[in-house]
Design goal:
The protein is mainly α. The chain has 16 helices and two strands.
Length: 472
């Protein structure tokens, strides 16, 4: 057992969380720079252009989410096999995940591209927004395959505890995106800018380079995972396992993405100013979630490896400490955001006082409950990493279908709050879902799932876990 594995499996939990979470948070900060850079420059085009991006993002996220369960299954299994000391299985899982994710991404990218106009018509976007939104979505769907591949690369590397290489790749691509964004959006010299589509095109270029770099690193095999061409021969027993393990993950992420689309319907009914305010507020929320996401991803790796090593008690201790950190950390950030809300919104849209005022109201209504997001993310990470994907799926369905959208619709359409009712739905959801998820976690049934069995038993175990969780 090397020093890193010793820390992850038997050393200080605080040190292990920090060793993983800090690089992951840095990676997430840099990745958020894609959205921040886009939002910053697109905001200079006007509220309609911001609304175009805001409407488009949930739709592309839905398509990505549908295929993400397979990558999630690969990351979970790579972590558990690494904890169990089975390097050959780690390599096999990685190769099969690359194969499945690539095929799935191509299929979903084509479908998404063809259906883009219908998505926008269903959302009922205004004419001022439609053309830019369609261009943005088309380019985004062309790049879906690269987004999938690089996300899969990061997930697999994170599963084995390797975070330095993804950090280097993200650093380079973000810097490149920073240069390409204003060039593609506004143009330079004789080159005419492409507007909103230019933001999507800049991301496409940089994500494709990141995906290619990830595959090259896997093939060279110097950083914990080594792939060979023969490893890409389809293994149907593993594909069956990945389906049973990953299907709830796809449903979970799809439910969250579909919830965002449904919310976009509701937001769009209040006009462009509300859409723009919602878009800016959502961007700020994504920024705030960066540390919580980094912490939850660290939890996923540590819980996965400890479950693979047969140490569920340590996995529970890791999750409880992370929940405490997430609750306190995001509550503190929320208090700061409450004070500086107008300035945060003005960073994105400096010249529209209506959007600044409405966006600041959005932030102030929800920010004091951000600690609940930290709790939920850490618990869901533990559920996923232990193989209990159905738990995470049911929490997502409850959050989106039972709490957030019904609350948002009732408060915005049937009370005097109007679009402020949408803002309050975020606060209500954060509190309720955090409480439910932690109570469910404390029951302890998630500790009984074990995935690192012999090959002939793997699919059976995953299927039995899927069915058993559904019965409770």
């Amino acid at each position: 057992m090397n020093e890193t594995n010793h820390l992850f499996l038997s050393g200080s939990i605080s040190k292990a969380l920090l060793k993983l979470a800090v690089p992951i948070i840095l990676i997430n900060i840099l990745q958020s720079a894609y959205q921040l850079t886009d939002a910053f420059w697109v905001g200079r085009l006007g509220a309609a252009q911001v609304a175009a991006v805001s409407v488009s993002m949930p739709v592309t996220f839905l398509v990505i989410a549908i295929g993400s369960g397979l990558a999630m299954a690969g990351a979970i299994l790579s972590a558990q096999y690494m904890g169990a000391g089975q390097q050959d299985k780690v390599n096999h899982v990685a190769a099969q995940t690359v194969l499945m994710v690539t095929v799935t991404a191509i299929f979903l990218g084509v479908i998404g591209y063809l259906l883009s106009p219908y998505f926008l018509h269903l959302l009922g976007v205004e004419d001022a927004v439609y053309n830019d939104a369609l261009k943005f979505m088309h380019v985004s769907f062309v790049g879906v395959v690269f987004v999938f591949i690089y996300a899969m690369f990061q997930a697999l590397m994170r599963g084995i505890g390797q975070t330095k290489v993804p950090l280097i790749i993200v650093s380079v691509t973000v810097l490149l995106n920073f240069v390409l964004d204003p060039l593609f959006i506004f143009g330079y010299g004789s080159f005419t800018g492409l507007g909103v589509m230019g933001a999507a095109l800049a991301t496409l270029v940089t994500q494709s380079l990141a995906a290619i770099a990830g595959i090259v690193i896997f093939m060279r095999g110097r950083h914990g995972i080594k792939l060979k061409l023969s490893s890409f021969i389809p293994d149907y027993s593993y594909i069956k396992q990945a389906f049973y393990l990953g299907a709830p993950g796809s449903v979970e992420l799809s439910a969250r993405a579909f919830g965002l689309i449904i919310m976009s319907f509701l937001v769009a009914s209040f006009g462009t100013q509300t859409i723009a305010s919602y878009g800016v507020g959502s961007n700020i929320l994504q920024m705030v979630m960066i540390p919580a996401m980094g912490l939850s991803m660290a939890v996923s790796t540590l819980v996965g490896q400890n479950m693979g090593a047969g140490n569920p008690q340590r996995a529970e201790q890791i999750t409880k400490l992370a929940v405490l950190w997430g609750l306190c950390g995001l509550s503190f950030i929320g208090a700061i955001a409450f004070i500086f809300a107008p300035y945060l919104v003005a960073f994105f849209i400096p010249d529209d006082q209506g959007v600044i005022a409405k966006g600041a109201q959005f932030i102030r209504v929800m920010c004091l409950t951000w600690g609940g997001i930290g709790v939920q993310l850490c618990v869901v990470a533990a559920f996923r990493a232990s193989g209990n994907m159905l738990n995470a799926m049911l929490l997502a369905l409850f959050s989106q279908c039972v709490v957030q959208f019904p609350v948002a619709y009732i408060l915005s359409k049937h009370t005097h709050l109007g679009d402020h009712g949408i803002w309050y739905s975020f606060a209500v959801t954060n509190v309720i879902v955090a409480s439910l998820s932690y109570l469910w976690f404390c029951r302890g049934r998630w500790q009984q799932t074990k995935l690192t069995k012999d090959d002939k038993d793997i699919a059976k175990v995953s299927q039995e876990a899927f069915i058993e969780e559904g019965a409770h």
